[in-house]
Amino acid sequence: MLELKQYINNIKSEWYLWVTAFLVLCLSFSPLLFNFIWGNHDWLPLIQDNRLSSGLIEGRFSQYLLLNVILDGKILPIFNIIFGFLLYALALYGLSRYYFCYKNSKLTAAVFICTVASMPYITEIMYFHFITLSLLSWPLFITLSLIATQKSTEKHFLLWELCGFGLLFLSLGGYPGCINMYVTAAICRLIQIQTSHKPIFTQLLKKALPYALNIILALGSLKITYSYLQQNHLMMSLYNSQGATPLELLQKLPAIIQASLMSFTETQPFISLTFKIFLSLIFTLFITTLCFSSTLRKKTLSNTLILAGLILCLLVCLKFSAWLVSEQADNPFATLDPATSMLRTDFYSYPILTLFCLFFIHQQKPILLKNLSFIMGLILLITNINNNLIFSKTHLLGFSAENKLLERIISRIQENPEYQTHNLYTVIQAGELPLRSKFYMKKAHEKYGYYTLNTPYSRHWIAFEYYNFYAPQYFVQEGTSITPNDITPQMVNYLSKQMHSWPHPNAVYVDKNYAIIALTPEGKDLLSRQFRLLHLPLSNQETK
Amino acid sequence: MKEFLKKLNLLPDKTDLKAWLISFCIINFAFLYHTLNFMWGNHDVKFIKEELLLSSGLFEGRFTQFIPYRLLTSGQILPILNNLIGFAFLTIGLWILAKYWNIQKSLIGYILFITFAATQPYTLSWMYFTFITISCLLWVFLAALGLYLSERVHNASHKWILSFISVLCFYLTLGGYPPIINMFFVCLGGKLIISYTFEQKSLKQLWQIHKYTLINIIFAAILFKISLIILTPNDVYNLKTENLTNLPHKFLQTLAIAFKQFFITVPFMERGYKICLAVMSLLAVIGTLFYPSRPRKKYLTLFFLVGTIWTTSLTTFLVIPHTEYVSRIDFYGFGFLYALMAGILLTLTPKIYQSLGIIIITLLLCINILNDYQALKIWKQGHDAEFQILDNITERIENHPLFNAHHQYRFYQVGDLSLRPNYYNGSYDFNDVFLLTIPYLAMWQGSNLLEFYTPTAYINHNLPLLPEDITPEVYDFFMQKAEPWPSPNAVYVNKDIIIIVYNQAGLNDFKNTLRTLEPKE
Questions:
Q1: Is the separation of the CB atoms in B78 and A30 below 8 Å?
Q2: Are B345 and B356 in contact (CB under 8 A)?
Q3: Chain B residues within 8 A of A34 when measuring between CB atoms
Q4: pTM, whole model, 2 decimals?
Q5: CB-CB contact of A193 with A199 (8 Å)
Q6: Is the CB of A438 less than 8 angstroms away from the CB of B399?
Q7: Could you give the strand order of the β-sheet that contains A508-510, starting from the edge strand earlier in sequence?
Q8: Chain B residues in contact with chain A using a Cβ-Cβ cutoff of 8 Å
């Protein structure tokens, strides 16, 4: 109890560290704070509340816990984001101060925490409102879990271990990808122990065991929970919940290490080359510092081997979640970015590594290293803020452009002579038009960026959600397919002969049950092909 | 670094830091509505989507204009941060100026001086175009720094270093926006008045101290001219300087213009406000003239005052284009004269004068903020109204039976629409386009604007409207049927061209052009 009081007092006295990180996050995403814009899964959750059970379908049983506790399950403008930022800033402060136990000058610590907090991996998390708060809260849960696990090696093993496990399990229940943070931070801590003045292998092992136990327990419990949920038909078997087999794990190992290393150089939208250069520089400087640290200066083979092994483990841990999941993706629900390149999983590993590296380098004696790490941190901070604001601007303008397009489509539907005000329509939207990329100058060699840049705000399979959003009364019903009984000769004629892609006058077809929108030439062709396959017997009959 | 700043007396103490922070917050509050509503001017359309290159300003001789953007935001125009960075530079620039002018140091005094100077509606003129906001507010900081360091050269042990830095400051600002020269001389004039009158410095001493400032400015100006010769920018209007033989005649003209600035009203700086500013200035002038006891000193002070007022129109004196009563020029000229008057009021003794100064400047600060908010409300309404028309035009084009989104059209916008004035019911003697009338949907930006939000790019940006596009059908349409927006005949689409008629004046001009291209049947 006394210790807890001490923690609270420390947090109070060092408020400036997490408050500055919080403010930097607010500045980085200020256009999204002051302009309420949302992702393609948010249309319905914005109107209806998110129930506790809403995430069960993909096994995310604790996903809406915090949202329900803090905001009663509602997505509220500004609040949704600032609560998330507060928790994330607190997590990074806790991690550096109480887990890695670094003590630096006020300014250095503030710059490092701000730099890490604002790393643009966070951009992908800012796209969907309905998960922003939960995804930003897991770092705090995991930090507490890590601190508890660390405590378990000192006293009350069972109690602290149980706390550590509980917190980790809760976080994995919200987003399994956050395991990356736990494993990355744990390995970093082991490296820190190994490079301390008197490294003893048995001591290291003793420190490592509680972490390993926690991971096995948490992942095992997660697997059991998934099985239970699936047995009770509460959860779908989706791409993001299928684990790899032991053989697969072994086979994937080289590719995962390669992907981890590639992530230091490979650019993505909003993850600019400057950012990657500084990320690589910091990691390289960290490795160099490690090579010249007091431990390795002793040049004992065992020490060298242990550190090399830990670095290798660290590389696997950076992509731990991608390593654990099965490669088989169940399209169309899977994203187009491979699991190894998803920013939201990297969000839980690379910033943690950077935080550790910056503090580690700064702890070294040569003043040059101290200054170098500070300057690199500062430049990275500026780069981060720029990258995040470029993302926010693109998000803002893309959202406006797509909404303007939706308005024009709706007005075309409602101006159609066949449109009846009191009818309920099934909207068949052929194709999607993501427009964010219009406002972003993609650089050469930039890959991926599904959620950050390429996904549209209006997914064709949830058309009813956004077409009804601003309508005075619901005119679109759930559903995306045409019932054979409803097919009229006019529809056959339209789909087989007259259909053109938007904005052609024949891009929109309306009858008493359906509104068909051919949004893109690709979508139009696909719909025509599907319709031909489906409707061939009927057309033949008509011809006869 | 700390030592260097300490030596220069530029290391901020607690009062300075507090003054920075509070002033920065007040300035941001004054323009908050603009910061939170991402609006951009007609030059920004392409840059919002793409990025500013170092070379983007070269064509008009603004070779340093985009250095700050490249260094600070990777060439991007970033919502919110754009204003925040600009205001941060403006705040620190005005703080340096307060130190340069030796304005009596107090938290309230510094805050009032900085915020009054920064929130004058002249600042609005740098917010219409987002692509120059950061640079043009940074120039204030650099110019003030250049002046401050130049003054320190006299007593410095390393004269060359300080001179080099100040020449660099002057050179960078001239390369970004040459009318900054107004600020150099208004601030220098202000310094001379304050030193001569309040600090009791002799003319000889003034010369000894400030000759370095003159030398540095002249040196920077020469470098600037050489750079222009090397870079050979296009023959643009804003680089045309006056012939030497015309200057004597122009001196009297500009002297009159400089004094008229006290009374000429422009949008958002109306009669009542100008009178308040004039009263404040008059009080400061009276206070300054009555400060010295000897008549000779009084006359010389008056001479300095008149000279300083004249320098507010220095750019108008030096260049051919009409730059009088233009807010963005006056931002660097008359705006700083008002700041000087405020500074004098806050420095004058006896104490009663200072108290009176605090009251008047607080009042003026409130009026400044109200004027800014009125302007920004009108800007936002105008911006929304113009972009709504753009949406409607896009819809009209998309619904046109002959329109094919996958075709490349040659495009022409006939005239333009400026809707901000529709929401303004004030009166003014002289219209300032940047504050009120310049349209968001400018004629020359039509093609970029039309495609700004649309899913497909259907305009051929490489090819303008061609004489062969004026077929008999097109000719007849525009001669007989075409009408300005929102008439059904405001949008013309055929298989090759798209033409939109925005206003009658533009249509008349277009008809005149068409007559010269009348097709022979």
A1: no
A2: yes
A3: 36, 80
A4: 0.94
A5: yes
A6: no
A7: A476-477, A425-430, A514-518, A508-510
A8: 36, 38, 48-51, 72-74, 76-81, 84, 391, 394-395, 398-399, 401, 403-406, 452-455
pLDDT in tens, A216-272: 999 999 999 999 999 998 888 776 677 888 898 999 999 999 999 999 999 999 999
Task: Compute how many other C-beta atoms are within 10 angstroms of the C-beta atom of residue A9.
Answer: 10
Instruction: Count CB atoms within 10 A of the CB of residue B349.
Output: 11
What is the separation of C-alpha B208 from the centre of its chain, rounded to a whole number of angstroms? 33
Residue A451: other Cβ atoms inside 10 A:
21
Nearest to A425 by CA among A522, A516, A533, A345: A516
- At residue A489's C-alpha, the angle toward residues A484 and A490, to 5°, is 110
Separation CA A186–CA A208 (nearest Å): 8
Q: What are phi and psi of A3, to 5 degrees?
A: -65, -40
A410 part of contact set with chain B, CB < 8 Å: no
**Cβ-based burial of A252 (10 A; exposed 0-12, middle 13-18, buried ≥19):** buried
pLDDT of A19-55, one tens digit each?
999 999 999 999 999 999 999 999 999 998 889 988 8
Residue numbers in A near B56 (CB within 8 A): none
B258: nearest Cα among B322, B325, B192: B325
In chain A, where the domains are located? 20-226+251-326+340-393, 401-543
Total CB pairs under 8 A between chain A and B: 85
Cβ–Cβ below 8 Å for A502 and B76: no
Chain B within 8 Å of A396 (Cβ-Cβ)? Answer: yes
Of A35, A390, A433, the CB nearest to B76: A390
DSSP, collapsed to helix, strand or coil, labels residue B279 as helix
pLDDT in tens, B357-367: 999 999 999 99
Q: Which of B34, B398, B403 to mutate to test the interface with A (most CBs of A within 10 A)?
A: B398
A29 touches chain B (CB under 8 A): no
Task: Give kind and range of the element (H or E) at residue B493.
Answer: strand B491-493
> In angstroms, rounded to a whole number, what is the distance separating the alpha carbons of residues A438 and A39?
17
The interface pTM score, or ipTM, of the predicted complex is 0.92
β-strands A425-430, A476-477: how paired?
A: parallel
Q: What are the pLDDT digits (tens) for B450-476?
A: 999 999 999 999 888 898 999 999 999
Q: Which of A279, A250, A450, A247 is closest to A349 using CA atoms? A: A279
- Report chain A residues whose CB lies below 8 A from the CB of B395: 408, 411
Residue located via tokens 């700390």:
B2
Q: Which of B38, B78, B391 sits opposite A390 (nearest CB)?
A: B78
Q: What angle do CA B283, B288, B290 make, to 5 degrees?
A: 95
Which residues of chain A are within 8 Å of residue B84 when distances are taken between CB atoms? 27
Residues of B in contact with A30 (CB under 8 A): 79-81
Q: Name the residue in chain B with its Cα closest to that of A439.
A: B49
Contact across the interface for B48 and A441, Cβ inside 8 Å? no
Q: Inter-axis angle of helices A201-231 and A157-174, to 10 degrees?
A: 50
Is the distance from CB of A414 to CB of A471 less than 8 angstroms?
Answer: no
